[in-house]
Amino acid sequence: MTAPDFTGWREPWPLTPTLHQLTEPKSVVVEMNRALPLAKNAQRPDRLPLRVLAGGLRLEGTMPGDLYAWARLSDGQWLCCVKIHATTGDGKTGLDLCLWVTADAVSAAQ
């Protein structure tokens, strides 16, 4: 996956930018339970077909990723543009996911 494209963005206040693009991606850890709170809708694994368990994307509690940009929201919070790689349950294939998540879900990689 290539880096996100921000060429269409026009900064409304150039002296206090809303979008901060990194020149090089930074390695981060994404806390997936904060980034995508999916647990409340999850089904028990013993009630799912094997094709879903094996072929569905597996999201771990924390996942390594790359940070590409920050964007300030109108309420003052920050969003992070991150890319993670999620593999299927059987590990045979995967997808790069580009996500905008709240800043509390992202920390610097060790």
Shape: elongated
Q: Total number of helical segments?
A: 2
Order of secondary-structure elements: EHHEEEE
Tell me the major beta sheet: 5 strands, antiparallel
Mean pLDDT: 93
**Number of E-state strands:** 5
Radius of gyration in whole Å, from Cα?
A: 16 Å
Strand content: 35-45%
In percent, how helical is the residue content? under 10%
Which secondary-structure class do the elements indicate? mainly beta
Instruction: Give the low-pLDDT segments.
Output: none
Separation of the first and last Cα atoms: 23 Å
Strands of the widest sheet, in order across it, are: 4-3-2-1-5
Number of discrete domains: 1
Write up what this structure looks like.
Helix content is 9%, strand content 42%. The chain is mainly β and 110 residues long. The protein has one domain. The protein has a 5-stranded antiparallel beta sheet. The longest helix is centred in the middle third of the chain and has 6 residues, at 50-55. The radius of gyration is 16 Å and the shape is elongated. The chain starts with 18 loop residues before the first strand and ends with a strand.
Quickly list its features.
110 residues; mainly beta
Short description:
With 110 residues, the protein is mainly beta. It has one domain (32-108).
Question: Layout of helices and strands, plus pairs?
Answer:
Elements: E1 19-31, H1 32-35, H2 50-55, E2 62-72, E3 78-87, E4 94-102, E5 106-108
Antiparallel strand pairs: 1-2, 1-5, 2-3, 3-4
